Amino acid sequence: MANGALEIVGMCVSLIGLIGVAASTGMPMWRVTAFIGENIIVMETRYEGLWMNCFRQANIRMQCKVYDSLLALSPDLQAARGLMCCSVALTGLGLLISIAGMKCTACIQGNDRAKRMVLIIAGCMILAGCFCCLIPVSWTGHAIIQDFYNPLLIDAQRRELGEALYIGWVSSAFLFAGGCIFTCCSGPLDKGPDPRYMYNRNAPFVAYQPQPVQSFIQPSRQQSFIQPSRHPSARSAVAYL
């Protein structure tokens, strides 16, 4: 019963992580550049994402434009696009596989070992999705922080951490927790009963036959009792009888 509750908790936690990863992948707020001119009226904010970049000025709606080519992205964002898509695919597929291994479902009935193996595979896939999300988010954050403290760059080239990075870190934590729950709640895989101690109902019944009791007297002593003595008086007594 406790394992069933843990499986439901792992499913909910992993689903929250999947929603967060999908939201982080589609959001354009990976890199934020805020430029304020000498006049306070001139204020512009630029957002760079995996699929588009957006501009927003004071009292003006946000305007977004899709990238014309993949070469317009920096190397970290190029890698992030592929890794984030892999994270969404692995996490979604892991959640679908985990449904078959849960005890509350009717799939694979009567085979607990197969259900445990399915849950372990699903947990490993969710953990792989967690790392596929954590790597690009951390890489992009490191590049932003490194450029922010670079004295050779001007203020217009210095970027800040966007909201999508924070959502990605939190989603990675949820996916890590869900993957660990699925992997650990299944328990150790038992190898089944030992065939040496299994009772075979089809085996024929053999009655117990007691073994004959062996004599504890050594053969040499038995022969000493049977053979007559060589003493002369003893021979005479035997002859008299």
TrEMBL record:
Any one annotated GO CC term: bicellular tight junction
Transmembrane segments: 5-23, 79-97, 118-145, 165-189
Pfam family, one: PMP22_Claudin
Major localization listed first in the record, in broad terms: other
Taxonomy, superkingdom: Eukaryota
Membrane topology of this protein: Multi-pass membrane protein
Localization terms from the record: Cell junction, Tight junction; Cell membrane
Keywords assigned by UniProt, alphabetized: Cell junction, Cell membrane, Membrane, Tight junction, Transmembrane, Transmembrane helix
GO MF, one example: structural molecule activity
Family: Belongs to the claudin family.
Primary role: Claudins function as major constituents of the tight junction complexes that regulate the permeability of epithelia.
Protein known as: Claudin
Organism: Cyprinus carpio carpio
